[in-house]
Predict the 3D structure of the following.
Amino acid sequence: MIAHAIFFYTFSIIAVVSAIMVTASKNTVHSVFFLILDFISISCLFIMIGAEFLGMIMLIVYVGAVAVLFLFVVMMLNVAQQKNQWFAGQQSSKHIPVGLIISTLIFVEVIIVIGGWKYKPEIFDINNSIAQTSISNTHSLGQILYTDYIHVFQISGMILLVAMVGAIVLTFRQRSGVKRQSYIKQISRERAEGVEVLEVQSNKGVKIDD
Amino acid sequence: MEYLSTVFQEVYKILFLLVPVLVSVAMIVWLDRRVWAFVQKRQGPNVVGPFGLLQSIADALKYIFKEIIIPSSSNKVIFILAPIVTMTLALISWAVIPFSATQVLADINVGILYLFAVSSLGVYGIIMGGWASNSKYPFLGAIRSAAQMVSYEVSIGVIIINVLLCVGSLNLNDIVIAQQNMWFVIPLFPMFVIFFISALAETNRPPFDLPEAEAELVAGYQTEYSGMMYAMFWLGEYANILLMCAMGAILFLGGWMSPIDFYPFTLVPGAIWLILKILLLFILFALVKAIVPRYRYDQLMRLGWKVFLPLSLIWVVLTASYLFYFNLLPVN
């Protein structure tokens, strides 16, 4: 148990400190790296409570894909300079109320969730679904997700699809005057279409019509 | 006291796995260069030791005694961290590889997900190295490789789903045992081909070595690295290749299962069979490097997103329908 506690506190301290460093560090790329560290330590915490599937998916989806895109954007846009401009001088005071409102909202939400958990523990009945040691974590998750919550699952998939299509439609622009490579055209080209053999009379030359 | 002895036992096991992996990485570099040379009718490294076997050791020694140069305008912490991340990630994934039904360091329920997660983290070593160098070529190489690895991971993930549909478990040993009657390479042959090509792209091997295309980018993300740090990138890369081969062997070639299932061959330990299968896949990797010219970048992206992803998705639907129709779904 002591080892368990040591690991738990190590991971949670790393998670909290790196979460603070995400907002505190000056360099934006460093913030993303701290965010990645945060994700990793949270997935370690997931694994420690026995939710190994969630922990691994957290690693694959958030660290392996989402954070890479974050890094991409941050590195390409050079946000570090812009951030200095935003927070320099009097302009920074404009952002404070918005930040305060959002952080108060999140704080209240956390209070509600933790309060509900403390006063009505039977609402969050973890023991029924996870503690059955005979079936693995992945099985139990699949059994719940594809039976009781199938509609919610499908709807969330549809929302993601719509968001993806929307993003593509918004950013897609048809450029004119660009030569596109068509593989089928290139492969299906034959000698008869490409080459023409002409009898050339001397001193007349050839007239090409295109 | 009991706790300490458990820790020592585990450390002993880890060393027993890690040292052979590191040695075989060195040997595999030699093999790669030899195969490459033989395809081109050259001799390859054949001077140091018998058949040149010690060439990689000599190279490693040379790297150790070279000076490590850290560019003054680089981000020093991340610059040093990048090769360490690459190397560590390449080595920790060996923890779940089963060498026989019992010989596995960590027999976890979600083994294949762990492998997939660690290989998807591998991109960070490259991005960190490219960004921290604070130089144009490494940065371009890092951007390229990030886009490439993220794209090809998607199709690898879908291929893994194909295999998992036939197995019904995420445990690597279960995946191997499910292939007792027939290796998955036979029913899922198109997936094996796509997996092989995606593995080439995922490990930045030729013909997909755009991140270090020497004609355009000097050496890509490794340009500013020297000495031991360069050697760590280099070892990490080959350890990753070996790992992808092991993954291919476990998913499609029956892992530690013996291909010939009668008396004298059943005595051969499973680890030998696994190593032989990994070697077979690695020689294929090396041959591809020698034979095929480098892809253009837009064609690489097109291949990943427009060919491999739809193909493997269609195959998921086909596999699922087949298993469902003939009532073969592994439900327990």
